[in-house]
Amino acid sequence: MILLSNGTVVDGSGSPGREASVLIHGGRIRDVGTVVAAPDMEVVDCSGLTVAPGFIDVHSHSDLEVLEHRPEKVLQGVTTEVVGNCGFSLFPKLPSEKLVPSFDLFERRGAWTWTDAAAYFDDLQKVGSRTNVAALTGHATLRANVCGIKAARLDSAEWRRMERRLSSCLEQGSIGFSTGLNEAPSSYGDFAELARLCRIVRKHDAYYTTHLRDYKFHILQAVEEALNLGRETGVSVQLSHLQTVGRMNWEKMDAVLDLVDRAERDGVDVGVDAYPYLAGSCHLTQILPSWALEGGTGRLLERLSDKETRARIADETEANLGNGWENLLIASVRERGHQWIASARARSHQSLVGRTIYRVAEERGRSGVETALDLLQETRASLMIVSFNQSEENLRKVLSHPLTSIITDGVYTEGNPHPRTFGTYPTLFGEFVRDKGWFTVEEAVRKSTALPARRFKLERRGLLAPGYWADVTVFDAERIGTRADYMEPRHAPRGIHHLLVNGEWALREGKLLDRFPGRPLKHRG
Fold first, then answer.
1. Strand, helix or coil at 495?
2. CA atoms of 402 and 425, how far apart (whole Å)
3. Contact 134, 81 (CB under 8 A)
4. What is the pLDDT of residues 273-305, one digit of tens each?
5. What HEC string does 313-377 produce?
6. Are 211 and 204 in contact (CB under 8 A)?
7. Hey, how many other C-beta atoms are within 10 angstroms of the C-beta on 483?
8. If residue 505 lies in a helix (H) or strand (E), which one and from where to where?
9. For residue 111, which phi and psi values (nearest 5 degrees)?
10. Within 10 A of 242 (CB to CB), how many other CB atoms are there?
């Protein structure tokens, strides 16, 4: 038995913190309150520290990294992750070629292939994980599995295969279905296609999470599309990393949140998630018109080499750009992406990391859009960017909304990954709770634990209460924070003292332990 004694217990419910002890036995919480230490207990003095449920990141891109036992999530207090977001999952099995750059996130999979959710969960069980892992089935992966990077509507045989594969993954414990509707190939799915798939999701009492079709000029229509899927099919809808991108679209945020509130009042089961940063991150190809990516990266590069087609791509890209080129920071160049052979020229592109597209364009004497297209050609479309999208006022509105769960949306890349990968929750509790006072500790804990657990029906998780799994984070509310920023993101956070996952130590006295107590969390529809 483990006794976390004399800490300030913030139990995840939103109730005021109180001085209490937490007794853990057999992987679960046995008692919370006044507990007298006994000889058979491992007693840990938590005086002056906050004892909270482990943070639950329901928008993670650590699909492969959980199998590799990467430490970044547990170092920031995360005990549970939901992977397979934005339409990209590791199952069902991906074709070996003719993919788009976003699938590069999984290029380290090597000989690993997962035909379905069961195969993925089996490997999680075999190799273990630092965190608990639930997994969505990605629309982009499903589409690529049945028809490659094809913009046309599915034929009847492709439809049967896609429906069969989605149903199979959901039956095997996948927690739901995700889309990434502003990037190929998920963007090729129309409303009718999504509704047909969402009916399958609803049948399994699972979840639909969506990277919206647009966050810029057409965000209101994109939000309506998602909410209408909920209205028409009855599926639970989660709006991923909600924001309005670009200064000229910031004024739309109130209208966006009004759509969400009205839908909830009308009976739509809707939720929201967001990260506590003004900037996001994505592949540079995400700013292109989706038709340019049909057929995969090779066809994109061919189109960029054709003068007339390139001009069309440039015009449409410029017209749809929500923010200026000065707001797009090059974060990484994936030299291995799509078998791009490392060379002296390839290595020279690493000097781009940490510079904006605008700055590179000035140095080259080219326009921003032509420079972006040049870089895509030179690097075989392997650039990741950090994009400064939001206003602080809008960030506060979204984070404060009662339906919003806090997420990382962290993506592991070379170069300078977005700092959210390393410090989302320390940033939340350090900058936004302690320093800016946007939330109480209790409300921030609720948004990071009980709210996402209830939203995704993660049974017996997200609260410090008898009978719940002992996923526990112990942190110093006065010290928690991080040095990770956009130029130097690779810093471990400070102030996280202890972490338990399913009652086993994952972090002790701030030190990472070589243990993998996480479990696959299979949905039971």
1. coil
2. 18
3. yes
4. 999 999 999 999 999 999 999 999 999 999 999
5. HHHHHHHCCCCCHHHEEEEEECCCHHHCCCCHHHHHHHHHCCCEHHHHHHHHCCCHHHHHHHHHH
6. no
7. 15
8. strand 504-508
9. -80, -5
10. 25
